[in-house]
Design goal:
single chain, 294 residues, alpha/beta, Rossmann fold, Alpha-Beta Plaits, six-stranded mixed sheet, four-stranded antiparallel sheet, 10 helices, globular
Length: 294
């Protein structure tokens, strides 16, 4: 068994934050952990990795109790960047891990190249941007080639190129046999990483397969967005305009070919059409409708 969490309960004073969490993972896979801020995602990961004591239950990772120190040669946990030391370089952080893990320092250059931080490896962390800190954190948790990788908001502060590279690395690690549990608010990236998701709601875990909710979303770039919006509103077509000024449609809400024909009839040039799988956001909206309305 890779992960075994049984009836895990955690209280803060009188508040029960984790209400009997159960997780069993027998084969390598990528699991997404999703929920609003304060839902208990980080608390769960901290309990699993023995950074936080819990009140009831049991946790085993790779067949060992979560308190077994030898376990962390094969388990890594990416936390937020508050664990970094501003006066040290990225190289210093990675060298420390090599010393603790008894790894050759040649691994530092290898992992720096893999995550794309070679150019600032010797710079002090106080001069890092948020994205550069995320790269360093990722390097720190994969340098030991873990069998189990826990990630708490790994996409924070990443530009689109870095986010794509992060996804590529995680998928490579999964193909190499690493089990990954990733907590993230980036639902588009979750859709690209996995179909298996645990939603945290009211201190409990709801396991879902996104295949049950998946639809297609179309992103259309046109030469005249305002004119297109006028036409769509006249036709009462459901759509949104994203930050990139693209028109967004869900497949089940509009006949995409009919809409394309309408644009051509009104002399609106289509510059690009992209389709994406949508599942995590759709299910999130259903589960957390009350929170979204606040």
């Amino acid at each position: 068994m890779i992960v075994e969490v049984n009836n895990l309960k955690k209280r803060y004073k009188k508040q029960l934050v984790l209400k009997g969490i159960n997780i069993q993972l027998e084969t390598p896979q990528i699991i997404a952990l999703v929920g609003p801020n304060g839902s208990g995602k980080t608390t769960l990961l901290n309990c699993m990795t023995n950074l936080l004591a819990f009140n009831e239950g049991e946790v085993k990772l790779l067949g060992k109790k979560h308190t077994d120190a030898s376990l962390f040669h094969d388990v890594s946990y990416l936390q937020d960047n508050r664990i970094l030391y501003g006066s040290l370089t990225g190289y210093d952080h990675l060298k420390f891990i090599c010393n603790v893990q008894k790894l050759p320092t040649s691994k530092i250059r290898e992992v720096a190249k893999r995550v794309g931080m070679e150019s600032y490896l010797k710079k002090r962390v106080r001069n890092y941007s948020l994205g550069m800190k995320q790269h360093l954190l990722l390097a720190m948790v994969i340098i030991n080639e873990p069998k189990l990788l826990l990630l708490d908001e790994p996409l924070n502060g990443l530009d689109p190129t870095s986010a794509i590279n992060m996804r590529r690395i995680l998928l490579e690690l999964y193909k190499e046999g690493t089990t990954i549990i990733v907590s993230s608010h980036n639902l588009d990236e979750i859709d690209r990483l996995t179909n298996t998701i645990y939603f945290m709601k009211d201190g409990a875990l709801l396991k879902e397969s996104l295949q049950d909710f998946a639809t297609k979303k179309y992103l259309i770039t046109v030469d005249d967005v305002e004119k297109a919006k006028t036409i769509l509103n006249e036709q009462k077509v459901l759509f949104t305009v994203n930050e990139q000024n693209q028109l967004e449609f869900e497949e089940n809400e509009v006949d995409i070919q009919t809409f394309i024909n309408q644009l051509y009839e009104h002399n609106i040039a289509i510059q690009d059409i992209e389709n994406q799988k949508v599942g995590a956001e759709k299910r999130y909206r259903e589960l957390f409708e009350q929170e979204l309305s606040l």
